[in-house]
């Protein structure tokens, strides 16, 4: 309402020095009412915990027309420092937000509101986070003339939200770790059961294979004796006096030799014994490897021959790689290593099986596929390298290969647990290092580094040289 005179003008007019006719009594009453309403507005807006700022949007930089007490206090200023000043007097305190008045005016002119959060640093150096909502005010012609910004200090709310998010992230991480440990435990129990079964089968096979080996040895000696007997009979017949009887016996012996293919048997039976002896030897070797491989680990580490463990694992994995690739070994002389031998056998097996699968996926065969297993003694560690010329690992998968259940193999060919368990065995159980380098189409090399002196899990890993796994591309 505009009566042609503002309250200040009327106050001046109603002073004792002013003529009474300049400010009629009715106008003085109306002005007094307006003053009371404005004072009531200020009391109401100053009593709330929300900042309240009215800005003129008809100027290039919006000008503050009004702000409540909370707005000034929140910025560490007086109300007089803000009213009549450009809104940049506030925006200059922004730390995490860039002010763009033209963009904001365009958004408000379109009828949209602006909501944002920003960190603010006060003149005294203290800071807080604020949340602000700005709404537009239009005149009768639809032009943007004002804006009203309401806001609040959201520092405590934001910190509480961050703490809650941290707790949620921690809970998710703990649940994932629990699931990983549970999966490893289940697999370890399964492997332990399989190990006991394999040890039992190896024991059961070992006894009859000894019978077979002994029987082959007996038969070979028996055949040798029969051969000596035949030669003795032939010599006895040849020693008889010349005559029809000797001629008949010699003729009969020659006929029987042809009938029963004596010359063929004399040539092939020794070869058959050689093959049987070699086959029984291979079975016996496999049984010994199975028994060593399946031996359950004790809670304590013991010394082990890494070269021998690798050879036993290669014997066990023969069925996996023998039709896919050739094995090349380059074993250096190594000291005995304090370790969990059974766990290392499982880790070596996983890496060798992966190499065989990679070679098969590359379309190679036993003539072109190669798996190279080498060992070296380097300072306080032994280093094992298992390299293949298979399909290689894409760069985007290198950082995922140790994740539990991550696999690119078809269902039934891989569970995605092999490398996760291998890393756990090397890094967490032995304080070693497992790293990989790979190139698509050229092959992959896994490097295993194990401390010779062993690793105490009860000690903080950092003090024991605990090294995390890594991945790289050559």
Which descriptors would you attach to this protein?
rod-shaped; five-stranded antiparallel sheet; 474 residues; disordered C terminus; Beta-Lactamase; 13 helices; disordered N terminus; 4 domains; alpha+beta; 13 strands
Structural description of this entry:
There is one protein chain. With 474 residues, this protein is of the alpha+beta class. The protein folds into four domains: 1-46; 48-153, Beta-Lactamase, CATH 3.30.450; 172-295, no CATH class; 297-474, 2-Layer Sandwich (Heat Shock Protein 90). It is 49% helix and 19% strand. α9 crosses α11 (341-361). The two termini are 81 Å apart. The relative contact order is 0.05.
Briefly summarize what is shown:
With 474 residues, the protein is α+β, with helices and mostly antiparallel strands. It has helices spanning 7-13, 25-46, 69-74, 88-91, 101-109, 155-239, 244-259, 262-293, 306-316, 318-321, 341-361, 395-398, 418-430; strands at residues 51-56, 63-67, 114-121, 127-138, 144-153, 302-304, 326-331, 337-339, 370-378, 381-388, 433-439, 443-451, 470-472. Strand 11 (433-439) and strand 12 (443-451) form a beta hairpin.
């Amino acid at each position: 309402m505009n009566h042609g005179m503002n309250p200040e003008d009327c106050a001046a007019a109603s002073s004792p020095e002013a003529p009474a006719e300049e400010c009629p009594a009715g106008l003085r009453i109306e002005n007094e009412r307006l003053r009371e309403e404005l004072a009531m507005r200020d009391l109401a807006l100053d009593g709330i915990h929300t900042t309240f700022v009215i800005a003129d949007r008809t100027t290039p930089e919006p000008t503050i027309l009004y702000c409540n007490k909370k707005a000034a206090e929140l910025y560490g200023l007086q109300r007089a420092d803000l009213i009549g000043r450009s809104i940049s007097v506030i925006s200059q305190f922004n730390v995490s937000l860039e002010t763009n008045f033209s963009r904001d005016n365009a958004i408000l002119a379109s009828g949209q509101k602006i909501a944002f959060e920003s960190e603010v640093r006060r003149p005294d150096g203290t800071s807080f986070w604020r949340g602000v909502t700005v709404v537009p005010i239009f005149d009768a012609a639809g032009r943007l003339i004002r804006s009203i910004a309401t806001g609040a200090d959201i520092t405590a709310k934001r910190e509480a939200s961050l703490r809650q998010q941290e707790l949620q992230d921690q809970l998710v991480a703990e649940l994932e770790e629990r699931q990983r440990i549970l999966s490893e435990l289940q697999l370890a129990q399964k492997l332990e059961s399989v190990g006991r079964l394999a040890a039992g089968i190896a024991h059961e096979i070992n006894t009859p294979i000894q019978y077979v080996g002994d029987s082959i040895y007996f038969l070979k000696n028996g055949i040798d004796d029969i051969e000596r007997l035949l030669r003795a009979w032939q010599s006895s017949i040849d020693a008889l006096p010349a005559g029809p009887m000797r001629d008949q016996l010699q003729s009969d012996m020659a006929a029987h030799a042809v009938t029963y293919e004596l010359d063929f048997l004399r040539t092939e039976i020794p070869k058959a014994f050689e093959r049987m002896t070699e086959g029984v030897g291979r079975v016996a070797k496999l049984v010994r490897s199975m028994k060593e491989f399946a031996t359950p680990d004790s809670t304590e580490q013991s010394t082990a021959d890494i070269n021998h463990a690798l050879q036993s694992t290669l014997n066990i994995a023969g069925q996996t790689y023998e039709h896919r690739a050739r094995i090349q070994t380059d074993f250096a002389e190594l000291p005995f290593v304090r370790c969990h031998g059974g766990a290392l056998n499982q880790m070596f097996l996983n890496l060798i099986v992966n190499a065989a699968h990679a070679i098969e996926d590359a379309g190679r065969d036993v003539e072109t596929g190669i798996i190279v297993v080498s060992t070296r003694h380097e300072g306080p560690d032994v280093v094992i390298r298992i390299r293949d010329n298979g399909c290689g690992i894409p760069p985007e998968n290198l950082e995922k290969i140790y994740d539990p259940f991550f696999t690119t193999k078809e269902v039934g060919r891989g569970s995605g647990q092999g490398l996760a368990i291998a890393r756990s065995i090397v890094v967490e159980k032995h304080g070693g290092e497992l790293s990989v380098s790979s190139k698509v189409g050229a092959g992959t090399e896994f490097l295993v580094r194990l401390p010779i002196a062993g690793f105490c899990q009860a000690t903080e890993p950092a003090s024991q040289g605990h090294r995390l796994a890594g991945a790289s591309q050559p």
